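task queued by scheduler; priority normal; single chain, no ligands, no partner chains; default sampling; output format set to structure tokens
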Amino acid sequence: MREFVRRGDEEYRNNERSQSSACFFLAIRSVSLLCAMGKLLTPQTRDSMKVLARGFLESRDLLMTFRFDDQSVRNKIGYWFEDKMDSSWKADHTRCEQLFTKLAGKSSEFAKKWSQTTTLAHPTRFAAQNSVACATIWAAIPPRQEDYSATMEPEVADYLTSIASLIVMATYDLPGLISLECDLSRMPTIDIFKQLVSDMVVPILNKSIENLPPSSYRT
């Protein structure tokens, strides 16, 4: 966050409505939401974390969209800065997916992840059931018992993966993207953190069971 604020201030002073300024606005918002999400990583509040997770994904994915180096994106950023009631805040998931599929050789499922999180952030039946599960841990008489490890391991893994994904989207200078010129020496732990997430956390997510039926979100 300190590096994003430092670089964001430099860009803002140079041009408060530039492409880089827009990216740093979104990077800072993404980290701010991650900080709040970390405080809600408990069995009793994990439903609230889902609401923040949706906001995080929207900011992170729009950051990725805003980094594409072409005029159509800069036009979109211009609309975004105009505060108009349009869809300029929506990420181009198709384009983001195409880039990461090309680089990694497999789908990152941006739109699917966003849609699944939306299902649990809006007052759907599944979201309400999720809140009931959280509330009965402390409000039922007697309080409902829950296996902490089984419940929270996938939640924590998803949270750590979210941090790692933001590292990639904000600091990696991938082909076709503008450089945000972050000073990586000011963030000396990001590479080892991302590697540890890849080695230890991603396998947890890969084996976790998706509880939402396919009909409850858009693929």
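post-processing summary
- The chain has one domain: 2-216.
- Residues 2-216 form one domain.
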